[in-house]
């Protein structure tokens, strides 16, 4: 039988104070993952004495995109990302990822911080943010620390957040100059779809070459990682020298290098390769290279 | 475990309630307020039968603890009908025969209302997106989409 005391924090100070004072606290945000666990009376609740609702903490909400830097508050919902003119204009791959999550009802409640902190291997928020080389700000009463998002997850559903910390916001440098992006997702259906594979390609381009490419995927590996070998293949390369199929193969090999040969590899290897191939083709087309 | 005090405005009426730590908005609506139009289907956010409107947004009431929405304005299916009769959405659902067994209907109506309140002239794609979190095993959806389009023309637009 699950038993806990529900607490509500109304400010960041109050939230940090509770985390500092009490033990065995589970943070509750939009609840779209946690309420499923609660319904199933999941074992994880046996270790929880307090469930701390943070949805009233306004300091954790909001999107700020400047010319150089951007930040997204942890309590920003996926619906807010989908509907944000600034996100759609400057970082459309984040809007694309957010719109692919759940359903209208889920997106109205589910938060980007919750998606990251829950750290499912299939979480759709990781690949766009890893492609941005985003950092997460983890705050406790004693102060804050910044961690590169790719170092945030230790294992599926396991992050480096300490018991007295809360994920406050996601921060990143805005892409520079001319840039293009692509977000793709394979699921078994359109709505309420759990990713089989998702992929983000973000590329800054200059004078007919890729200046800096960032490829990252979700659900392809136990926890989301950047694909450094395919980044290296694309970086500095003239459009004419880029072979999308080769880029796809490099990414697929890199994935299998991380996961090893698994039961799903005969499906995931060509599927990931094709997503990367398509993303690179989209990049070349949008950048105006006609081959 | 201690109960928590919450205040809600449901269908225009103010309520002061005490809720448990595990009490979902769905439980409060059905068990405390006896508004049983809102249905419990899957209980895990997949089917949308429990959809209500919280502060102008459609949400699954099975995925929200009542204490989380303290101070919110909530609309349930019972809030649609007024003294002047059925709401245009309800009339359209009847007219287009968008109801068969009826279990999904309250949730469908709430998702549709949340859409039309913010977007009075939705495209067919926007209607589909608004209803994507609501499952119907009877109609095949077409009549429901037709009904929302009809309501938008007669009321929203």
TrEMBL record, chain A:
GO terms for molecular function: FAD binding; oxidoreductase activity. Gene3D superfamilies: 3.30.465.10, CO dehydrogenase flavoprotein, C-terminal domain (3.30.390.50), Uridine Diphospho-n-acetylenolpyruvylglucosamine Reductase, domain 2 (3.30.43.10). Keywords: FAD, Flavoprotein, Oxidoreductase. The keyword Oxidoreductase applies. The keyword Flavoprotein applies. Residues 1-177 form the FAD-binding PCMH-type domain. It comes from the Bacteria. InterPro entries: CO_DH_flav_C, CO_DH_flav_C_dom_sf, Diverse_Substr_Oxidored, FAD-bd_PCMH, FAD-bd_PCMH-like_sf, FAD-bd_PCMH_sub1, FAD-bd_PCMH_sub2, Mopterin_DH_FAD-bd. Pfam families: CO_deh_flav_C (PF03450), FAD_binding_5 (PF00941). This is Carbon-monoxide dehydrogenase medium subunit/xanthine dehydrogenase FAD-binding subunit.
TrEMBL record, chain B:
Residues 4-80 form the 2Fe-2S ferredoxin-type domain. Transmembrane segments: none annotated. Pathway: Alkaloid degradation; nicotine degradation. It holds the Pfam family Fer2_2. The keyword Iron applies. GO terms for molecular function: 2 iron, 2 sulfur cluster binding; metal ion binding; oxidoreductase activity. PANTHER family: OXIDOREDUCTASE WITH IRON-SULFUR SUBUNIT. This is Carbon-monoxide dehydrogenase small subunit. Signal peptide: none annotated. InterPro entries: 2Fe-2S-bd, 2Fe-2S-bd_dom_sf, 2Fe-2S_ferredoxin-like_sf, 2Fe-2S_ferredoxin-type, 2Fe2S_fd_BS, Beta-grasp_dom_sf, Diverse_Oxidoreductases. Keywords: 2Fe-2S, Iron, Iron-sulfur, Metal-binding, Oxidoreductase. It comes from Halanaerobium kushneri.
